[in-house]
Each structure stands twice: as structure tokens, then as C-alpha cells.
Amino acid sequence: MKYLIVGSGLFGAVFAHKAAEHGNKVIVIEKRDHIAGNIYTKEIDGIQVHMYGAHIFHTSNKKVWDYVHQFADFNRYTNSPVANYKGHMYNLPFNMNTFSEMWGVRTPQEAMAKINEQRQEMAGKEPKNLEEQAISLIGRDIYEKLIKGYTEKQWGRKCTELPAFIIKRLPVRLIYDNNYFNDDYQGIPIGGYTKMVEKMLDDPNITVKLNTDFFDKKDEYLKNYDKIVYTGMIDKFFDYKLGELEYRSLHFETEEKNVDNYQGNAVINYTEAKVPYTRIIEHKHFEFGKGDKGKTIITREYPADWHRGDEPYYPVNNKRNNNLYAKYAELAQKQAKVIFGGRLGQYKYYNMDQVIEAAFDVVTKELR
Ligand code: FAD
Ligand code: UDP
């Protein structure tokens, strides 16, 4: 069996690794000049720089956690971002530290009383959009200061026009715990994500070709390979014939600063609408003091509208797009030779662990 894998991101790499392990010949083509997709990290000044935004690995799936440990050791990094709203600093996710900073409350009972008072305006109403969902979850003060500006920048539209599910990802806790995630396992691969993916692809049955775009020779590839695993945009595969799916793009501005410690935390979110970026990442804090003395690398992350040719970082999973995706998925079903996978091939807001799970599912069916 000869597999062509389009894209060397996590989905493609897991599939390639498993298929090769089963004795199959695998060719991975990648249009960028490096492997690892959006989890690509590059060493600068002795620090692993997350070139496409901060990536923290977290999962409750022991199978996934054990799987990635074949390729890397993980450090004990625990994501605990801080929000800057007009110069005031608030701990995230929403927990007793945040409530105490916001309202001066000290106990869970005091916090709950305040939250319940704030939620009153949504009492008895079913939240129909993100704004209503946020207010019914946490109340107006936190919505206005920590959610509204950030979310409207991130998604380029009003919170009243966004689906409620986006905000359901954010945990609300009545303990003094700044751990952003609820998962059982969390960390960052020591030595960077690129090294981890390199190991996944390190098999005599796997050949990787960089700077190679599937669309330059689509018909030839479809003719010559037994099976294709495609992890690019599903609408592009079909030449957008049913219409364009929407994506959000990002623009990253990376800068070297001549200080040891620029902001004191790996991730600081800027939740005010007026600041054009959503967050600043200081990469060395993912690695506990690693990196050259007197130097640090920071990245500002600017959300951007997506137009053809831009990097499609986030699928926009609203009703219109999900309906259109369902029609593309029907076309995909008819492509017996092609498996569509990953954030772009399945048009799903997957985290890394979910991408790995999705690849396991496909691999199990394919290689049985
Ligand atoms: P990708 O990584 O996008 O890989 C697809 C690959 O296919 C790319 O390398 C692309 O160049 C290539 N490709 C596309 N089209 C073609 C073509 N025509 N020809 C050849 N190659 C092609 N997840 C977490 O778990 N934790 C986090 O903290 C986290 N933070 C994130 C932060 C940001 C800013 C973003 C955007 C995502 C974040 N994620 C996070 C999600 C994570 O990045 C994804 O789940 C994962 O990287 C998706 O892997 P993938 O293989 O599906 O896609
Ligand atoms: N969010 C917010 N304020 C913040 C951080 C996140 O309102 O300070 C909202 C925002 O709508 C965002 C969603 O929560 O799209 C999910 O955020 P998360 O950081 O989990 O998503 P990521 O961008 O890392 O995929």
C-alpha cells in the first residue's frame, strides 16, 4: 500500500507514523519549508519559539499522553495566562483569584453571591449567542472586561453574532487555581514540538518532501497513489465549488528584547478592544529559565480576516459554515481514495490531543 500524506502537521504525522509502523510506504508532502504544521517550534537564542502561536499540550486521554511520550519528554508547564484590561491584571481562567481581583470577594460563598447577582439579567432565558452565554455563565462585569473585547477581536464580529459554544471552553472555578485547563495531563515537549514530529516521521518507510504543494499536481497524485490522506482545506480540495468556508487568520509579530524577563509570564492576554493584538507570548517562560542571558523573545498575536491565500488558522464553526461543511463532507465520502483529516480537512476546532484521537480513529479503520 502506498500512501500520500498531504501536510506534515500533527494529523499527517500520526497517520504517517502508524502507517509506516504497519509496513506501508508513505510519502509526506508539505507546502511549507518545514514539518510540524502549526505546532512548529524553532530555536532562537536557546529558546524554543512557537512560530504559529502558543501551544500547550493538554489531555485527559491516557492513550494519547502515552503515545506522545514515545517521541518526547514533557516538562511540567501549566498554562496560567494573565489578562491585562486597561492596565489592571486579572488571573485566568475565571477563578477565586479573578473574582477577588474583580470584586474584592474572599470566599467561594461571597463569589457565588456576586456571580448570581450578576447573572440575574439572564434568569430564565436560554442563551442564544456568545454574549448571552457569557453573561449567564459569569455575569456582566467579567464579560465586559475579560471576554467581550478579546472575543470580538479574535473572531472579527460582535459577541451577539457568535455561537455560544466558543465560550463554553473556558472553565469557571471556585478555588484559587490559575490552571487554565481541567485536563489530567499537561506540559510542553522538552526540546520543542518540531523535534517531537521529527521523531514521528523518522522511519525508513517515510519520505518527506518539503516545499511541495498538492495542488501543483493534484490529478497526478490522485492517479498514482493507492490512498491519499489530505489535511489541507476541504473546500479548496473541491475548488470551492459549493462556496467558501470561513476561517480566521492570524498575524504574528516576533521580536527579540534585550532583557531577561519581559512580562513575567508566558501568556498575557489583552482583553481591551482598543489594543490590536489579543496576546503577547514570552516563549522562555514555557521552558523555565532556559535561553541566553539578557535576551528574550516575545510574539504579539494579531487576529486577522481570512482571504484566499492567507493561513487559515481557525475554522469558524457557525451554523452557515457547518452546513456548508456537511455538504463538502458528502462530496468527500464519494472520494474513495481520499481520507480528509485534521483541523482543516475536517473543519473542526480541534486541540492537539483531539487531532491525535481523530487520527487514531482513521488509522484504526484504515489499517485493520
Ligand atoms: P496543521 O498543523 O494546520 O497541519 C496541516 C499541514 O498541511 C500544514 O503544515 C500545511 O502547510 C499543510 N498543507 C495544507 N495544504 C497543503 C497542500 N495543498 N499541500 C501540501 N501541504 C499542505 N492546540 C492545543 O492542544 N493546545 C494549544 O495550546 C493550542 N494553541 C493553538 C494556538 C493557535 C494560535 C492555533 C492556531 C491553534 C492552537 N491549537 C492548540 C490547535 C493546534 O494547532 C491544532 O490542533 C493542530 O496543530 C492541528 O494539526 P493538523 O495536522 O490538523 O493541522
Ligand atoms: N476568551 C476570552 N478572553 C480571554 C481568553 C479567551 O474571552 O482572555 C474567549 C475567546 O472567545 C476565545 C475563547 O475564549 O476565542 C477560547 O479561548 P482559548 O484561549 O481557549 O482558545 P485558543 O485561541 O487558544 O484556541
From TrEMBL:
Pfam (any one): NAD_binding_8
Keyword line: FAD, Flavoprotein, Isomerase
Gene3D superfamilies per the UniProt record, alphabetical: NAD(P)-binding Rossmann-like Domain
Signal peptide (UniProt feature, chain positions): none
Flavoprotein in keyword set: yes
UDP-galactopyranose mutase C-terminal domain ranges (all copies): 145-349
GO MF entry, a single one: isomerase activity
Highest taxon, organism lineage: Bacteria
Keyword Iron: no
Cofactor: FAD
InterPro entries: UDP-GALP_mutase, UDP-GalPyranose_mutase_C
Assigned protein family: Belongs to the UDP-galactopyranose/dTDP-fucopyranose mutase family.
Protein name: UDP-galactopyranose mutase
